Every structure is written in structure tokens, then in C-alpha cells.
Amino acid sequence: MRFSRSSLIRCAALTAVAAGVVSAFWGCAVSVPQGLQPVSGFDVKRYTGTWYELARIEHRFEKGLSQVSAQYSLNEDGTVTVINRGYDPAKQEWRQAQGRARFLDDPGVAALKVSFFGPFYGGYNVVSLDDEYQTAMVIGGSLDYFWLLSRSKTIPEQQFRRLLEKASSLGVDLGRVQVVAQ
């Protein structure tokens, strides 16, 4: 079978475009939102374990869930396994998703990308973390993604308010933030 020169050129062009699209999605260029600074001096080993979601900006993958927790564990290759779990009261069932996170660059900087769906990544930036690794504020690839996490299911109201004020100072729209029932 012989192909014309124009057919080969079109095929090569389409292949190049397809390769570019695949590589763009495969790499999923994830970056830190402008104006935000992830925590430096980050110790992923101290971050591993269970965290409870106290507040969030809700998205379809978490819609209506309560009693949400995240379990982080460090893998030998330096990636982090993420297991998110929450209760769906409408369906009266637990839902769980497992993903993998990778550091964007330096593991001492809390800027990661996480994937729950194949080669598609989203940002995971720890922008506030207390010295004891008991509360954390996470912002995704944009200010549309926000989570307030704690090692315990509740924290004192005054501390909760201070953390939300800090989130607001970073540009998080508190009108979109929902408290998560634990």
C-alpha cells in the first residue's frame, strides 16, 4: 500500500498534535497558584497519617459527604498514597478514592500534584501548617479548591476562625467554604 506525500504529511502532523495533547495531559502541568507560598521545611513523614476535613469548598467529587478523612502514606519511591474517605448520608454508604501524589520539585516544599484518575493531576499545596503538624490548610491548583484539615475531628472555635481568617487573607472566598460534619 502506498501513501501520497500529502497523506503522509497530514498523518505526521496529526501524530505530532496527538503526541502533544497526550504529553500535556500526561504531565498535567500543575503549578502553585500565583501569590501563594507552600510551606517550606516540609517533612512528609510527619504529614503522613490521618487528617480530618473540617471545612472545604465543595466540588462534585465530595458533594454532600460528611465524616471525610484523608490517609497519607509515604511510598519507597517518594510518592504519597492518598486515601480519601467520606460518608454519603443520602445513599447511606461510605465512599472512598485512592490516589497518588508527587512533589512538584523539592520534597521540602509542600507543593504536590495528586491524581485519582490516571494521568490527570490536580494541585495540592499545603499553604499553612502548624509546627506540631496538627492543622493544615490546603489549596489546590486554584483558589477554587480549599480544604482545612486537622488531626482531630474538632478544634477550638477560636482556632477554627483564625484559620479561616488566614484563608481569607490568601484569597479564599469564605462564602463558598462549607463546614464538614465530623
From TrEMBL:
<dbReference type="Pfam" id="PF08212">
    <property type="entry name" value="Lipocalin_2"/>
</dbReference>
<dbReference type="InterPro" id="IPR022272">
    <property type="entry name" value="Lipocalin_CS"/>
</dbReference>
<keyword id="KW-0472">Membrane</keyword>
<feature type="domain" description="Lipocalin/cytosolic fatty-acid binding">
    <location>
        <begin position="42"/>
        <end position="182"/>
    </location>
</feature>
<keyword id="KW-0449">Lipoprotein</keyword>
<dbReference type="InterPro" id="IPR000566">
    <property type="entry name" value="Lipocln_cytosolic_FA-bd_dom"/>
</dbReference>
<protein>
    <recommendedName>
        <fullName>Outer membrane lipoprotein Blc</fullName>
    </recommendedName>
</protein>
<comment type="function">
    <text>Involved in the storage or transport of lipids necessary for membrane maintenance under stressful conditions. Displays a binding preference for lysophospholipids.</text>
</comment>
<dbReference type="InterPro" id="IPR047202">
    <property type="entry name" value="Lipocalin_Blc-like_dom"/>
</dbReference>
<comment type="subunit">
    <text>Homodimer.</text>
</comment>
<keyword id="KW-0446">Lipid-binding</keyword>
<feature type="signal peptide">
    <location>
        <begin position="1"/>
        <end position="18"/>
    </location>
</feature>
<keyword id="KW-0998">Cell outer membrane</keyword>
<dbReference type="InterPro" id="IPR002446">
    <property type="entry name" value="Lipocalin_bac"/>
</dbReference>
<keyword id="KW-0732">Signal</keyword>
<comment type="similarity">
    <text>Belongs to the calycin superfamily. Lipocalin family.</text>
</comment>
<dbReference type="InterPro" id="IPR012674">
    <property type="entry name" value="Calycin"/>
</dbReference>
<dbReference type="InterPro" id="IPR022271">
    <property type="entry name" value="Lipocalin_ApoD"/>
</dbReference>
